[in-house]
Write a structure and sequence with these properties.
- The chain has 2 helices and 4 strands; from the N terminus they run H-E-E-E-E-H.
- The chain is α+β, with helices and mostly antiparallel strands and 78 residues long.
- The strands form 2 sheets. The chain has a two-stranded antiparallel sheet. Strands 3-4 form a two-stranded antiparallel ribbon.
- The chain is elongated, with a radius of gyration of 25 Å.
């Protein structure tokens, strides 16, 4: 295994680490609903990918949970 001959200076180490920057993700507009989404992934808002319904959207999941809560509350009132 290679062993360094001398200590790496602070400046040299910092110059090397200067390349470790974070880049913002590339975002696209969903052609179905117009929401911003990551490329090559199903839209979280509408659940479509390349014009096909792939998954349930967050909106649909929220609505289903709210309906279940409402049903539970009505059952407890009886």
């Amino acid at each position: 295994m290679g062993v360094p001959k001398s200590k790496t200076s602070r400046m040299r180490a910092r110059i090397r680490r200067a390349q470790w920057k974070i880049e913002s993700p590339n975002l696209q507009v969903c052609p179905q609903c117009g929401a911003i989404k990551l490329p090559h992934r199903a839209c979280r808002e509408c659940g479509y990918y390349r014009g096909l319904k792939i998954t349930e959207s967050y909106r649909e999941i929220r609505e289903m949970r709210a309906a279940k809560k409402k049903e539970k509350a009505e059952e407890q009132k009886r």
